[in-house]
Amino acid sequence: MILPIIAYGHPVLKKKAINLEKDYANLESLLVNMWETMYNANGVGLAAPQIGLGVRLFLVDTEQLYDGKDDKEGIKKVFINAQIIEETGEPWSYEEGCLSIPHIRGDVERQGNIVIEYYDEKFKKHREEYNEVDARVIQHEYDHIEGLLFTEKLKPLKKRLIKRRLDSIRKGNVKTDYRMKFFRG
């Protein structure tokens, strides 16, 4: 089932998510719905807060970015209760966007390598290292479970330039090819 994406301005996007318990109800169907929702919106990652759930869960599919273009394969994974252990490397800038903040993109500096601990969908623990685009997408989704948005990492001038557009999204004045849910509080 395709779920609505929570739009910029909703409080769930600014709260640090809580750990997801091993006996979380209907986890398997939630994951199926999240994958379907992400692909329907042409995303490469989706975090639980983006569908209104304040739990430490996100998924990433960077395989679709490579599609045989070079020798890299990308990753397609579920991350539960993730903790970034280490970020290293020279910061590099790359244009990011977000399904919760449609039609806004901006250059974000992130370090190029990460070490992350997480549980997969079977609650098997992993400690893995990622770099380049895989690391960046993970960092972006990880920020969501920490209550951070990519717009907070933009340079001050860019933040000022997008302020009106962010206000429009907050008010529900945005059109997308996917369902969105706006905060009316």
Features:
single chain; 185 residues; alpha+beta; Peptide Deformylase; five-stranded antiparallel beta sheet; two-stranded parallel sheet; globular
Structural features, described:
- Strand 5 and strand 6 form a beta hairpin.
- It contains 4 helices and 7 strands.
- The mean pLDDT is 96.
- With 185 residues, it is an alpha+beta fold.
- It has a single domain (5-175), classed as Peptide Deformylase.
- It is globular.
- It has a 5-stranded antiparallel sheet. Strands 1-7 form a two-stranded parallel ribbon.
- It has helices at 27-40, 63-66, 132-145, 156-170, and strands spanning 5-6, 45-47, 57-61, 76-98, 101-119, 125-131, 180-181.
Briefly characterize the structure.
The chain has 185 residues and is α+β, with helices and mostly antiparallel strands. Helix content is 25%, strand content 33%.
Itemize the secondary structure elements and their pairings.
Blueprint: E1 5-6, H1 27-40, E2 45-47, E3 57-61, H2 63-66, E4 76-98, E5 101-119, E6 125-131, H3 132-145, H4 156-170, E7 180-181
Parallel strand pairs: 1-7
Antiparallel strand pairs: 2-3, 3-4, 4-5, 5-6
Counting helices, strands and paired strands, the structural category is: alpha+beta
Largest sheet, in brief, is: 5 strands, antiparallel
N-to-C SSE string, H for helix and E for strand: EHEEHEEEHHE
Rg over CA atoms: 16 Å
Relevant CATH superfamily: Peptide deformylase
Fraction of helical residues: 25-40%
The CATH first-level class comes to: Alpha Beta
Q: Spans with pLDDT under 50 lasting ≥5 residues?
A: none
- Could you tell me the CATH topology label: Peptide Deformylase
Content of β-strand: 25-35%
Number of strands: 7
Tally of domains? 1
Strands across the major sheet, in which order? 2-3-4-5-6
Query: What kind of assembly state do the chains in view correspond to?
Result: single chain
Number of helices: 4
Terminal CA distance: 26 Å
Q: What is the annotated CATH architecture?
A: Alpha-Beta Complex
